Amino acid sequence: MSERHFRIVLGVWLILGLYLNIIEIVYALIGLLLFEGLTNQRIPKLVSKLRSTADHSQPQQPGANSRFTFEAERVLRFLVALFVLLPMLQGLEIIWWLPWFVGFALIGAGLSGICPMVMTLKRIGFR
Predict the structure, then answer these.
(1) CB 106 within 8 A of CB 11
(2) Tally of domains in the chain
(3) Is 1 helix (H, G, I), strand (E, B) or coil?
(4) 57 exposed, middle or buried (CB, 10 Å; 0-12, 13-18, 19+)?
(5) Which of 37, 48, 66, 82 has a CA-to-CA distance to 121 between 20 and 30 Å?
(6) Domain of residue 92, residue span
(7) What is the separation of C-alpha 86 from the centre of its chain, rounded to a whole number of angstroms?
(8) Per-residue pLDDT of the chain (127 residues; tens, 9 = 90+)
């Protein structure tokens, strides 16, 4: 499973959870994203390791222009969890559209292979 596929699946589950008003799904996705962000144990990496016993990929080295050693994908997971959790807090009903926007943006990023948030984070200096 690649990051693109994971973004599509994550976006679809988020939209379904919001549309069907099953808040438990949304909270489970938030928990999953926070777990992945904290531990850097990503589902796409784990699925890839399970599929192939021989790992031919080389470890990713930080770029010469990286200001931070933190990966952009990890920061993306934290930001998605924050942007979905924030409107669910009491008194913040004015930004009800934010989780919907994040869900559709994840689907679009997965389908196109271009994630503007990751590109922006890399431009800021994350690797």
Answers:
(1) yes
(2) 1
(3) coil
(4) exposed
(5) 48
(6) 3-49+65-124
(7) 16
(8) 788 899 999 999 999 999 999 999 999 999 999 999 898 888 877 777 787 765 555 555 555 566 778 888 899 999 999 999 999 887 778 888 999 999 999 999 999 999 999 999 999 988 8
